[in-house]
TrEMBL record:
It catalyses: N-terminal L-alanyl-[ribosomal protein bS18] + acetyl-CoA = N-terminal N(alpha)-acetyl-L-alanyl-[ribosomal protein bS18] + CoA + H(+). Its EC number is 2.3.1.266. Keywords: Acyltransferase, Cytoplasm, Transferase. SUPFAM superfamilies: Acyl-CoA N-acyltransferases (Nat) (SSF55729). This is [Ribosomal protein bS18]-alanine N-acetyltransferase. It comes from Actinocatenispora sera.
Amino acid sequence: MSEVRIERLRWWHIRELLPIEDELFGAERWSAAMFWSELAAGHYYRIARDDTGIVGYAGLAVTGPDEAWIHNIAVRRDRQRAGVGRALLDDLLAEADRHGATHVLLEVAVDNEPARTLYGRYGFVEVGRRRGYYQPSNTDALVLRREASGSD
């Protein structure tokens, strides 16, 4: 497999994200308008690209002087478990650190064991549950939080 490069998400990449969204999330996928809205709001979005095209993407919102939220991390099925998700997560956490975020939060489907395992390796712990958060499947979301090194 070719080397993955992490790059800034641009508006012209959105079209390439939609098939990945559909493959991974089906009826709960994000629309092009949702990605446009994230970019318009100035949130931090990155793509992972190799010689085949975009293989993953991730987004982060710095929501306060000490807080950041990971909005999504998605990796094309044929590139999962190859370090792409870790590379994207490393990039998001570095951006949160650059902004001085003392904690980073995210929501993950309760039944997404691979993602939960990845986040656990990075020190994310469960701090809440949103019942029926993902629609239309009515799947619960776990709220996970990671403290920055050196914070309370």
